[in-house]
User: Which sequence fits this backbone?
């Protein structure tokens, strides 16, 4: 084996392992995001060296991967501008820039695709094991090595990806069985995370899947089966509502929303829902005063103090975190508006529209992933947290590798 071939294969296997770890290892450790960052840097370095020594070889002619890299680079550039103006989270900037380079250099090969699939399946098992271990230790809301919301976001994405791998009839029986178990394990973790915003996301994603594929469903099932299934679903729903015990997790979480709303009506905002309404109001008012570029990370605390001093926002805004309250707006869109202004929101919309620049097969699963993040973004900031942001980016790249690798081979 000559040096050029050795570098090419080493680079390919390094990219493949990084794709594997991005799913299987990201949530498996409290330092998963740090390990992944290191693997990305090593992969990029090997990819550049391999290209230098193999100038005549066309490594990556995949347009979807290149367009993905461009979209992430645009988003990262906006973050850099925001940092220069008034501060920004440097970790999110590094993730964006390095991932853009990674997706541009990644070889679209069978090896990368295969290890990516294995990573998706094993990640489902990881979520299941973490959930079981937490419940065994008496932890009611499962959060793994992160917190409950970030854990739920990971479970949601892996439920979608495993379901997609399972539904692909071109995969082997072994892969499909593994994906089915991985998807169920992810769903198991999602339920016991008790994250209502992410629960809503999976309902919306499931509804979107049915809407898009209703013709295929009708072709597979005749009208009698559909009618019977619909009637059975209604009966099961009624039984679930009337028979389930009073300590049911789902009912308790729904009751908590009602209770929080009633507390708000009497002026008590120190609840989960109440605090969100307070920080949402604060973020909106901050955007109104700074509509173009926002206040930035460095100006957020001063903004909140000023709002409370002027009586514009409930003083509960500053409770916790050393007298500064919540570090973000608990809403992806309002958070972008107050920190990065209208320019930041436009870049976020471009980021979420990335699937529309992919190939047709990659676009379908990419839209499901972005839909999950769009809905979750109404109650949290997944794209401003390292683990969910990494998972979002690698899920989009997985869509490209999974679908376009076959097209390239054919």
Assistant:
């Amino acid at each position: 084996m000559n040096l050029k071939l050795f570098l090419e294969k080493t680079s390919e296997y390094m990219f493949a392992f990084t794709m594997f770890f991005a799913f299987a290892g990201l949530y498996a450790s409290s330092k998963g995001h740090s390990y992944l960052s290191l693997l990305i840097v090593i992969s990029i370095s090997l990819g550049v060296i391999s290209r230098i020594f193999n100038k005549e070889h066309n490594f990556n002619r995949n347009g979807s991967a290149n367009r993905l890299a461009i979209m992430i680079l645009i988003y990262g550039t906006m973050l850099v501008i925001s940092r220069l103006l008034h501060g920004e989270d440097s970790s999110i900037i590094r993730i964006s820039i390095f991932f853009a380079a990674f997706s541009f250099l990644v070889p679209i090969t069978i090896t990368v695709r295969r290890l990516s699939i294995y990573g998706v399946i094993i990640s489902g098992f990881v979520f299941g094991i973490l959930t079981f271990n937490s419940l065994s230790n008496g932890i009611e809301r499962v959060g793994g090595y992160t917190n409950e919301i970030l854990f739920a976001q990971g479970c949601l994405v892996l439920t979608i990806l495993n379901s997609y791998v399972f539904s692909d009839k071109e995969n082997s029986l072994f892969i499909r069985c593994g994906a089915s178990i991985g998807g169920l394990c992810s769903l198991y973790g999602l339920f016991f995370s008790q994250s209502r915003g992410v629960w809503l996301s999976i309902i919306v994603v499931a509804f979107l899947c049915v809407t898009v594929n209703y013709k295929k469903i009708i072709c597979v099932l005749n009208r009698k089966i559909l009618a019977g299934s619909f009637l059975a679903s209604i009966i099961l729903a009624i039984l679930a509502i009337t028979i389930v015990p009073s300590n049911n997790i789902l009912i308790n979480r729904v009751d908590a929303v009602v209770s929080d709303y009633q507390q708000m009506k009497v002026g008590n905002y120190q609840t989960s829902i109440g605090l969100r309404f307070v920080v949402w109001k604060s973020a909106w008012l901050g955007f109104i005063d700074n509509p173009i570029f926002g206040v930035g990370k460095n100006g957020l605390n001063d903004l909140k103090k000023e709002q409370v001093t002027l009586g514009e926002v409930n003083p509960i805004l500053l409770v916790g975190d050393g007298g500064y309250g919540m570090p973000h707006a608990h809403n992806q869109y309002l958070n972008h508006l107050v920190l990065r202004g209208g320019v930041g929101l436009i870049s976020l919309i471009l980021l979420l529209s990335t699937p529309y620049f992919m190939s047709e097969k990659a676009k379908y699963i990419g839209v499901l992933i972005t839909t999950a993040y769009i809905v979750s973004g109404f109650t949290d900031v997944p794209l401003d947290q390292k683990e969910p942001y990494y998972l979002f980016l690698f899920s989009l790249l997985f869509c490209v590798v999974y679908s376009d690798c076959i097209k390239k081979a054919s």
In short: The chain is about 75% helix and 0% strand. The mean pLDDT is 86. Residues 69 and 100 are 4 Å apart (CA to CA). The first helix runs from residue 3 to 24.
